[in-house]
Write a structure and sequence with these properties.
single chain, 471 residues, alpha/beta, Fumarate Reductase Iron-sulfur Protein, Chain B, domain 2, Rossmann fold, 3 domains, 4-stranded mixed β-sheet, 49% helix, elongated
């Protein structure tokens, strides 16, 4: 369940105190960073590919309304039914209505961050629908009743010993093992029958190609292909920004995605869905539905600077290289999208008043921007959102909501003193004379630091001592 950032500091302290989780993240991130580096040995070629990927996404976004209409037209021509949802509530209602129209009570799901954004599992379960995650990481988290901690590897915070204990608790009849391959095989055995029994399969979408009316799905385990072909009804859910104009643009984006996400030249499966099952075909769903979700994306689209956020291809590279994320993990953010991309996306979708605090979870080292395969200027956008969180323009939702009255008064006083030389000299003289009265605590700054004290002499006093005329 997504929460606001009211308890962000508490979650951060809890995460920093969990050495096991920190160790799991450190090992996983080191491996992902090295594999990505190994697959981009030529820096110039990598930058050329990144610029190409950025141009493809930027071009699609510049024509997004027209491309979305063209996508709907092509998909409808292919026999795929398109549904539009402005909010997550509408998207959930559409999915439920499709299931109810078929009398369906069971859903098997492939990995989908948009379904996490919708809170779809809880919504359907509360209404009597049996929902099962088929992605191994998502399946593990469903058993543990936890949200994903990473957008590519959702259970990356757990090691094999924790997973083995979880399987022993949930499936006591299965022999206990800590072997990764055997654990994977156990999960496959448990899931296999559910694919056959589910009336509806659900998936996400990595790219939606306008030219051919094709939904592209990238995965490694085969569960996505099973979820989209075995059940008689397939529902795909995606954000409106996943549109790509032509099929020839897919290879460079796919190369950037797989190498940036998991350090693979290509994933095991690349699924292309262009229609329901046709006469004479032996497999595939009888119906295919696509739910296009807005959920604040149109608002982001309307801002020329923030628009770059929508270029994201959900590779997770910014998380893998972020010194903050790798130390506190995804759950500390309390949001669907953690890490640097979540730091800029969640406040824009949910409002600065609810998620503006996330913008403080950054050292502004720039690593996220340097590795983003589509060159999203994440640090620049973080700074923009930080400014808006503390300065009200009277228009932007939540702008100024993080500005504290005490802090505002301090900066106003600072501005007043520095604009009037006589007042500044009086303040400096007073500070040096009363330096011993300076407080030993200055809020969070002194939690790990010694509080600064005014110098015994001001710079002007020191200059006069050495015969320098300060006039």
């Amino acid at each position: 369940m997504q929460t606001t950032d009211a308890d962000f500091d508490i979650r951060i302290r809890d995460a920093l105190g969990n050495e096991r989780v920190r160790g799991n993240f450190r090992r996983a991130m080191d491996g992902l960073m090295q594999r990505r580096l190994d697959l981009f040995p030529d820096a110039d070629a990598m930058e050329s590919l990144r610029r190409h990927g950025m141009a493809i996404k930027a071009s699609a976004l510049s024509r997004l309304p027209d491309l979305l209409e063209a996508l709907e037209e092509k998909l409808t021509e292919n026999g795929i039914r398109v549904h539009w949802a402005e909010t997550t509530e509408e998207a959930n209602s559409i999915v439920l209505e499709i299931m109810q129209s078929h009398g369906a009570k069971r859903m098997i799901k492939g990995k989908s961050m948009v379904s996490e954004e919708m809170g779809l599992n809880d919504y359907l379960i509360e209404r009597g629908i049996d929902v099962l995650e088929s992605d191994l990481g998502e399946f593990i988290l469903q058993l543990a009743e936890e949200p994903p901690s990473h957008i590519v590897a959702p259970a990356i915070h757990k090691d094999r010993y924790q997973i083995a204990e979880l399987f022993r608790e949930k499936f006591p009849d299965i022999p206990y093992t800590e072997d990764i391959d055997e654990l994977t095989q156990s999960a496959r055995t448990i899931l296999r029958d559910r694919f056959e029994a589910a009336e509806v399969g659900l998936s996400g979408v990595n790219f939606a190609v306008v030219e051919t009316g094709t939904l592209c799905l990238v995965e490694n385990e085969g569960n996505g292909r099973m979820s989209t072909t075995v059940p008689p009804v397939h529902i795909a859910v995606t954000g409106i920004e996943k549109v790509v104009e032509s099929f020839e643009q897919i290879p460079p984006l796919l190369t950037l995605l797989t190498r940036s996400a998991t350090g693979q030249p290509i994933t095991t499966y690349f699924n292309m869905i262009s229609s329901p099952r046709k006469p004479g075909e032996t497999d595939g769903p009888e119906e295919v539905h696509l739910v296009l979700l807005d959920n604040g994306r149109s608002r982001i689209y309307s801002d020329p600077e923030l628009l770059a956020t929508l270029r994201c291809i959900r590779c997770g590279a910014c998380m893998n290289h972020c010194p903050v994320y790798t130390r506190i993990g995804g759950h500390a953010y309390g949001t669907v999208y953690p890490g640097p991309i979540g730091t800029i996306l969640e406040p824009q979708k949910g409002g600065l008043d609810n998620y503006g605090g996330l913008t403080t979870a950054s050292s502004l080292c720039g690593a996220c921007g340097e590795v983003c395969p589509v060159r999203i200027p994440i640090p620049k956008i973080i700074n923009r959102l930080r400014y808006e969180a503390n300065h009200s323009d009277g228009v932007s939702p939540g702008s100024g909501s993080k500005r504290k009255k005490t802090e505002a008064m301090i900066w106003k006083t600072w501005s007043l003193l520095h604009a009037r030389p006589a007042l500044y000299r009086l303040m400096a003289k007073t500070a040096t004379r009363l330096r011993k009265l300076a407080p030993a605590k200055a809020g969070p700054w002194t939690r790990y630091r010694t509080a600064p004290k005014p110098a015994a002499k001001s710079l002007h006093d020191l200059a006069r001592t050495h015969g320098v005329d300060d006039e």
